[in-house]
Amino acid sequence: MNNKVVWITGASTGIGKEIANAFSKAGYVVAVTARRKSRLVNIVSEIKFAGREAVAFVCNVASERSVHSTAKRIIEKYGKIDCLINNAGVTSFKSFLDTKVYDYDYVMDINLRGSFLCMKTVLKGMIKNRKGHIINILSVAANTVYDNSSIYSASKAGMLAMSNSVRNEVRKYNIKVTNILPGAVETAMWDAKTRQKYKNRMMAPEDIAHIVLQAFEQPKRVLVEDIIIRPVKGDI
Ligand SMILES: NC(=O)c1ccc[n+]([C@@H]2O[C@H](COP(=O)([O-])OP(=O)(O)OC[C@H]3O[C@@H](n4cnc5c(N)ncnc54)[C@H](OP(=O)(O)O)[C@@H]3O)[C@@H](O)[C@H]2O)c1
Fold this sequence. Notes:
This protein has helices spanning 14-25, 37-49, 64-78, 101-129, 150-170, 192-198, 205-216; strands spanning 5-9, 29-34, 54-58, 83-86, 132-137, 175-182, 226-229.
């Protein structure tokens, strides 16, 4: 397999789906994963209809077993994973006082622990190959204060710190770790009322996908470490 193999988590909708489309159009083999199988199957059908290669696997990033078996299946099929895009994520727009322990566990398990599991799973192979790229989709909430966002921000700030540490540890193996910090993007992450109200202020998922692809396509000697992307008129 000559083409680079790119694993995108949370690829059933929104930013992940557009990243999958952008990477596929650019000629890469994409492995799209998420929990909703029917959506993944549609994405792969469209890619294959266009004559390109893709595969879909159901993967819940909150489950260690699911993450391990997904990585194994991608490697069984294509022999390698060149790039992991840690995109799967959820939010909980609640005040800190209204946030329940359940909300904390749910957001942390998917955003922070899920990224931890996925990075751990691909890194062994990347170190063996002495190359690889991990792209973490964070948020401006990792370094900006917003109301009703404490747990989401904590999960993304945790990812930022973890990702920066991992980058330091693995750059000696020629492995790149990139952080993408988007502001508001019009996806299902926002409720219908907010999307309707701010749709002209928000970025499109394709905008983020285009920038992620550019970060991936830099020369071997170049590592894009962090990118902050905001709507031109600022935060909503
Ligand atoms: N939209 C924004 O304004 C914005 C801004 C900054 C950063 N982000 C980040 O961008 C990423 C993508 O979000 P989005 O805006 O595209 O929202 P979205 O359309 O709701 O997409 C979220 C994706 O994550 C997947 N997912 C959720 N829980 C999962 C789990 N346990 N295991 C595997 N996949 C899971 C969902 O698929 P299934 O439900 O099928 O599993 C879906 O594909 C997130 O990390 C988010 O924090 C979004």
